Amino acid sequence: KNLKKYFPIKGGVLKKTIGNVKAVDDITFNVKRNETLSLVGESGCGKSTTGRTILKLYEPTSGEIFLNGQKISDIPRGKFRRMRKDIQMIFQDPFSSLNPRMTVRSLLLEPLLTHKLASRKEANELVGEMIEKVGLSKEQLDRYPHEFSGGQRQRISIARALIVKPKVVILDEAVSALDVSIQSQILNLLIKLQEEFELTYVFISHDLNVVQHLSDRVGVMYLGQMMELGETKDIYNNPLHPYTRALLSAIPSLDPYEKKERIILHGDVPDPSNPPSGCPFRLRCPKAHDRCAEEKPRFLEKEKNHWVACHLFDE
Ligand code: SF4
Ligand code: MG
After folding, report:
1. Could you identify the atom of ligand 1 that is nearest to the CA of residue 311?
2. From the CB of residue 250, how many other CB atoms can be counted at a distance below 10 Å?
3. Where exactly are the structural domains of the chain?
4. pLDDT tens string for the chain (315 positions)?
5. Do the beta carbons of residue 118 and residue 164 sit within 8 Å?
6. Which of 85, 128, 163, 238 has the greatest number of beta carbons closer than 10 A?
7. Choice from 312, 313, 314, 315 to test ligand 1 binding pocket (greatest atom count within 8 A of CB)
8. Is the reported ipTM for this assembly greater than 0.90?
9. If 0-12 CB within 10 Å is exposed, 13-18 middle and 19+ buried, where does residue 229 land?
10. Where is the ABC transporter domain (predicted)?
């Protein structure tokens, strides 16, 4: 709720704060139990920072975070440790998130034993079950991460995240580094495991094809702000925000006869330490008008469960 995460910029000889990178700038959204909410946008739009802030890897600058109705943003980091297992994160590059000196068995045992979730005997049994649930075998438990392919390593990361029975899993570009054929295998695995463990996913991605396949709802971010939020079918079939329209027009169509008008966005994403006045998208927006420079658009529920921040929908 009203989440902000600013990173100070230090400058001068005294290393004083001379400005802020507004990585996440006042966003509000919810994720329902057992749902997949995707956050999309170009790199630097604040989607990863949002994920890390939810996980309390970063302290929010302001705003509130709730899990099952409990405000977790106020819990000091030390006390949060017991709840830490409830929110897990899976990263893009499993090679850097898996300690290369640990066997798969130790990688999976570690979270169970550090969170004191099982005795050693029970933990060993759980590890055997979990490795098979992600499509690998018990025989592979005594191998090291480098002995596996990228897709297999991502299966190991998934097993390590899920073995502690989390409630929420944040997937940050979790399939982006994989070949397309492997991507779909991992996505299908994620969907299967979500059903089995009743997981809630926050899926962070720049790939709109993948997002469409997997999400119940989609949030479109730009310069740290939420531009549009709605059910997947509404976002894809009836995008409202000019930025969402531009992003969707850039997806290659599978149907060669379908004529799609490609909306070209000019210029780069502005510097997040010096965002434009009014609407953050106005410098690149084909529909920008006077009001866009003067006033920041409100985030309004334009249709049922379909939110948008754009003056075109608030006149
Ligand atoms: Fe474009 Fe104005 Fe809407 Fe922003 S508020 S997206 S600049 S039309
Ligand atoms: Mg990122």
Report:
1. 5
2. 13
3. 3-86+166-313
4. 999 999 999 888 888 888 899 999 999 999 999 999 999 998 889 999 999 999 988 999 999 999 999 999 988 877 887 788 999 999 887 667 899 999 999 999 999 999 899 999 999 999 999 999 999 999 999 999 999 999 999 999 999 999 999 999 999 999 998 999 999 999 999 999 999 999 999 999 999 999 999 999 999 999 999 999 999 999 999 999 999 999 999 887 666 666 677 888 888 888 888 899 999 999 999 999 999 999 999 999 999 999 999 999 997
5. no
6. 163
7. 312
8. yes
9. buried
10. 1-248
For 111, the token pair is: 């979270």
CATH code given to domain 3-86+166-313 = 3.40.50.300
- Distance between CA 309 and CA 313 in Å, rounded? 8
Name every residue whose Cβ is closer than 8 Å to that of residue 184 and which is 6 or more positions away in sequence: none
**Amino acid in the structure at residue 86:** D
